[in-house]
Prior knowledge:
alpha/beta
Amino acid sequence: xxxxxxxxxxxxxxxxxxxxxxxxxxxxxxxxxxxxxxxxxxxxxxxxxxxxxxxxxxxxxxxxxxxxxxxxxxxxxxxxxxxxxxxxxxxxxxxxxxxxxxxxxxxxxxxxxxxxxxxxxxxxxxxxxxxxxxxxxxxxxxxxxxxxxxxxxxxxxxxxxxxxxxxxxxxxxxxxxxxxxxxxxxxxxxxxxxxxxxxxxxxxxxxxxxxxxxxxxxxxxxxxxxxxxxxxxxxxxxxxxxxxxxxxxxxxxxxxxxxxxxxxxxxxxxxxx
Length: 273
């Protein structure tokens, strides 16, 4: 009996090792959809959509303005309550019967208004860790420096209201093969970016560079070069409107001397890691 248990243990360990090796050979796919919206496909085939503003986003490619064109979505993440990050989140989550994770004040507002049922909007807060797609994929909610108000029009009166949207956040997504993606959301520069870089050690950072509402290209370059120091970075949240005037070439220039590789996709373009 003892030998049988030993053999079974070895077989289980071998199966886990084989599964881990298989995942390690698969790629992470990151599709930029304009502004701060991304579709991430994990090595195991799970699909995560972050900050989906698609239907009225002037930078989103035409085929993705139909939410069904994203394919099966397993999870929706939102960083804060501004329309250009949350506009299509509830609809996309309901379409796929996928859970929507957002700052707690925003989750409460969405469920109270009936925008999304409570069972699709689980509670979470900063420093929380969620594993809704299984133990191998971890979602860490971290700080962002911004504001978060939810603009809503009352269908009965037609009156627009500004409602609580919780505090803005960023997301660290830890995938099956250990690859970590840091979506910063909308943010200003803050000292804890250095802590986030040292503690979570993200491989890829999705960082706003537009300026005015967020850090600009120069400040984003400083954050990557001096504080977070990832292997890769993709700029976002620029060029959608003239006021978001940050340019990728200025971001690249601000990273002079850094070992971080800057990747600049076009909306609708996929990048594999």
